[in-house]
Amino acid sequence: MTGRPAMRRVLGLLALAAVPTAVLAVFFLLPVSGMLQRGLWPEGSLDLGVLDVLGEERTRKVIWFTLWTSAVSTVVSVVMGLPAAYVLHRLRIPLRGVVRAALLVPFVLPTVVVGIAIRQLVGESGPLGSLGLDGTPVAILMGLVFFNVAVVIRTVGAAWEALDRRPAEAAAALGASPGQVLRTVTLPALRPAIVSSAVVVFLFCATGFGVVLMLGGTRYSSVETEIYLLTTGAITGSVEYQAAAALSLLQIAAVVALLAVAARLRAVPDPTVRRTRATAARPTRRDLPALLATGLVLLAIATPIATLVTGSLRRDGRWTLEFYRALQGTGEDAGGGGIGGGLLRVPITDALGNSLRIAVDATWMSLLLGVLVSVVVTRRAHSRAEASVRGVFDGLFMLPLGVSAVTLGFGFLITLDDPPLDLRSSPLLVPIAQALVALPLVVRVLVPVLHGIDDRQRQAAASLGAGPVRSLLTVEVPVLWRPLLAAAGFAFAVSLGEFGATSFVVRAQAPTLPVVIYRLIGSPGELNYGTAMAASVVLATTTALVILVVERLRVPGVGVL
Amino acid sequence: MRTRPAVLPAALAALALLGSSCSLSTEGDDSGDHASGACGEVVLVTHDSFDLPKRLVSAFEKESGCRLTHSAAGDGGELTSKLTVTQGDPIGDVAFGVDNTFAGAALSEGVFAPYDAPLPAGAEQYRLPGDDDGVLTPIDNASVCVNIDDVWFDDHGIAPPTGLDDLTDPTYADLTVTEGATTSSTGLAFLLATIGEYGDGWTRYWQDLLDNGLKIDKGWEDAYYVDFSQSGGDRPIVVSYDTSPAYTVKDGRSSTSALLDTCFRQVEYAGVLDGAANPTGAEKVVDWLLSPDVQAALPTSMYVFPVAEGTPLPKDWASFATSPTTPIEVSPADIADHRREWLTQWTDLTSG
Fold first, then answer.
1. Is B23 within 8 Å of chain A by CB?
2. Does A120 touch chain B (CB under 8 A)?
3. Assuming Cys at both sites, which of A171, A388, B262, B302 could form a disulfide with B146, CB separation 3.0 to 4.6 Å?
């Protein structure tokens, strides 16, 4: 091979990588290092006090709690998610699309609302109160699984859907039992997707501070809740840069280590999989265990949501639509416990519109960046050095998942304050922050699929005279189309439900629906409480509908290759 | 197969267009010059619970010539932290919502610039002790008090508790729920009430509370809406506000009441931010927050008492929301000095 095409190839990849790298640098690396700097170089010189923080007894307790709860929740989510991924992506069952869309609902529900719903179930006076789970780690695990099992179902499901059935059929024809087929053919082929989703779930669990605070009370603390309390001055009355920086560094180290392990686990001898779009099969008797398991998963997710819906429809022991009617008002007539009218409180449709607009922006941003990152990451490396650069690049974009949202949010405030980056009160900051959180999910959905494309197809396209764009359109895009839609649904839901970084950005005037829900539920009066529940139901329903429509955007024939 | 893939770029382009036309261009469009005067734009940073009727905002803009932009920055603690972090290069011109539990920290960090607003009658008593430079202006107050579910105690034939001492009595074992002092400003106020009442003996009192089955939730909504018996939980004693009984009124009677000897008063302040781009506008906002119209709107908009004497209160408040006459006090300087120590001790006690 001569030098010039090789050079052109590298330049092309660099060009593709440039945009996402720039976005990450400005909106993630800069703010986070700004916060770290205040902890590490408080007076302009290096201060190693951070090491003392890490040596404290309390810190060790917090780290251990974070590790074990995240690990257990990840395992439970994977075990529960796999059968559901199979059933919902490979079997022809009624209402498949609806169920798949509904599974993303936990993603968009404000933690405070879900926390209350779960506590009403397991609380001392709830229907499951006799189990004594309230305020225990088990309740926290339930919450974490509730929020995250959809990640496994969706990521693995997308890969499973695109999996060629013929090797499995061949194995079966050769006498392998269904169990053997699963163990020796299907699961190995799905391993990259399973590992990817497990990593994402682990990171989500390790950084999900709302769930831990709501369901664990004040008794348990994770690294993320600790950073939150330290940064917001809840413990000392002033911002504890040093301790927060110590824990943030720890998070970064943990993410790097996790990604290294995952890269090894994910590596399969030959990632190339012949992709087909398998038509869903009619369920058979053999699918019964998977169907039962899926039923359990759905029940586990539906129960808290049902509590929520009931809460929105009942007042004083009667069924009523009162709370839904209250959603329409801006209530200038606020009196005894009504919704006040004012500067922030807008008709629910406005708040919903704000939420959806931001989510649409975050979705296209994360898809755009996600496709670029995935393409760069999956092009076959021509040297070992190139491969490791690729690995670092891939890992870099996972960082926003594992690094504290509080650190990022406060970092925005102190670093994006001067021209040309005077962005901290820009309305763009919210969708960009959300896109960064959704980006790893998009990448994790797309990468396994792109890895599966045989490089020889690209070479064939090139030798037939196709340019890089043409080759992208004829080779990658047809395979990518459906996973892209799945990723879009994901990104959309993440954006609607993201409360980490965005809740620390100084919010502009236009309130989103989750913000309105928080305000309602933080105010006294049954009407406010019920209206918060009704608003949550509206948010959940809208999300499910939007995702359903997005997933229906099928282009006939595309994907058959 | 040749023609199909073109659909994707088209769809992506459409999505991008939809996205950009939906949002990128429309945000901030309402910055029209309807109120362009000498004052220009003034940015008011508040906690998330801030709320006032639109007509009052319009009236302010018309009268002052300022264009008011509101920016919410999290709960009281987050707000204070954000102001501290951006000290000298503030995220707005004027801030509202720093209370007496957080004010000490904000003062020592030099977040606010001096402004001596003319106070309405009755507001003097709410001035922040120790605010020697006169940077903070009291706007409203509300007290955190132990609330009880009177109906529950009636039904169970148990005499309701009357003060903090009773909460450690075995008669009331497993009946009380409060909020975490590190995770909730309500919880912090309750901790301060016990410190003000028992002095150094507060750790002992808390140990007794815990031994008597105290439940600690993350936040107010959690304690009040899940565990408090009035909302369907099974604990008839909850840490809430002096105004809470006004929101449980049915047929002219409130089913709950606040124990007025257990209260810690939170006063919320407004102040001009040091380094504000529009200090004149900021001062006008502080004056506006003290105006009779805004003071009268505070109870219904933010569930707090106005500081101006003689401000008319909503109907249910007049009968059911009683402000304590002698709340338990801890000075802001004391809070600032001992906060870390107290909260560390509290955390050790409660997570043991």
1. yes
2. yes
3. B262
Tell me how many residue pairs between chain A and chain B have CB atoms under 8 A apart. Answer: 254
According to DSSP, residue B118 is labeled P
Per CB-CB distance under 8 Å, the chain A contacts of B234 are 124-125
B24 touching A (Cβ < 8 Å): yes
**Is residue A517 a contact partner of residue A113, using CB atoms and an 8 Å limit?**
yes
Burial class (CB in 10 A: 0-12, 13-18, 19+), A463: exposed
Comparing CA positions, the residue from A255, A198, A248, A215 lying closest to residue A76 is A198
Strands B249-250 and B176-179, sheet pairing: unpaired
- Residue B43 pairs in a beta bridge with B69
Residue from the list B23, B217, B343 with its beta carbon closest to the beta carbon of A217: B217
- Chain A residue at shortest CA distance from B56: A342
In angstroms, the CA A327 to CA A527 distance is 10
- The pTM of the full predicted model, rounded to 2 decimals, is 0.81
CB contact residues (below 8 A), chain B span 119-178, against chain A: none
Per the listing, tokens 């102001």 go with B83
Q: Is the pLDDT of residue A336 over 50?
A: no
Give the Cα separation of B262 and B246 in Å (integer). 18
pLDDT band at B188 (very low <50, low <70, confident <90, very high): very high
Give the torsion sign (CA, B136, B140, B141, B142). negative
Q: Please state, in angstroms and rounded to a whole number, the distance separating the CA atoms of residues B258 and B90.
A: 39
Test mutation, A219, A232, A414, chain B, max B CBs within 10 A: A232
For residues B352 and A64, give the distance between their C-alpha atoms in angstroms, rounded to a whole number: 16
B124's tokens: 């003097």
> Bridge-partner residues for B267, per DSSP?
B141
B40: left (phi over 0), alpha (psi -120 to 50) or beta: left
Give the model confidence (pLDDT) of B28-69 as tens digits.
334 434 444 578 999 999 987 888 888 899 999 999 999 998
Instruction: Give phi and psi for B139, each to the nearest 5.
Output: -120, -45
**Following DSSP, what letter does each residue of A180-195 receive, concatenated?**
HHIIIIIHHHHHHHHH
Contact present, B75 and B96 (Cβ < 8 Å):
no
- The DSSP call for residue B24 is I
For chain B, what is the radius of gyration of the CA atoms?
24
> Do the Cβ atoms of B109 and B80 come closer than 8 Å?
no
d(CA A337, CA A526): 7
Could you tell me the end-to-end alpha-carbon distance of chain B, in angstroms, rounded to an integer? 67
> Hey, what are A95's tokens?
């209402």
Domains plus CATH for chain B? 9-141+267-318 (3.40.190.10), 143-264+325-345 (3.40.190.10)
Question: What residue type is B139 in one-letter code?
Answer: I
Query: By CB neighbour count within 10 A (0-12 exposed, 13-18 middle, 19+ buried), where does A317 fall?
Result: exposed
Interface ipTM > 0.90: no
- Give the up-direction half-sphere exposure of residue A482: CA atoms within 13 A in the CB hemisphere: 23
Using CA coordinates, name the residue in chain A closest to B232. Answer: A125
List all residues 6 or more positions away from A29 whose beta carbon is below 8 Å from its beta carbon.
none
- What are the CA-CA distances from residue A462 to residues A452, A459, A467, A469, A479 (Å)? 18, 5, 6, 10, 18
Whether B335 has its CB under 8 Å from any CB of chain A: the answer is: yes
d(CA B222, CA A116): 6
Q: How far apart are CA B14 and CA A554, in angstroms?
A: 15
Q: What is the pLDDT of residues A99-143, one digit of tens each?
A: 888 887 887 777 778 888 888 888 777 788 788 787 788 888 988
Report pLDDT digits (tens) over B207-238.
999 999 999 988 888 899 889 999 888 899 99
Q: What is the DSSP annotation of A503-527?
A: HHSPB-SS--HHHHHHHHHTSSSHH
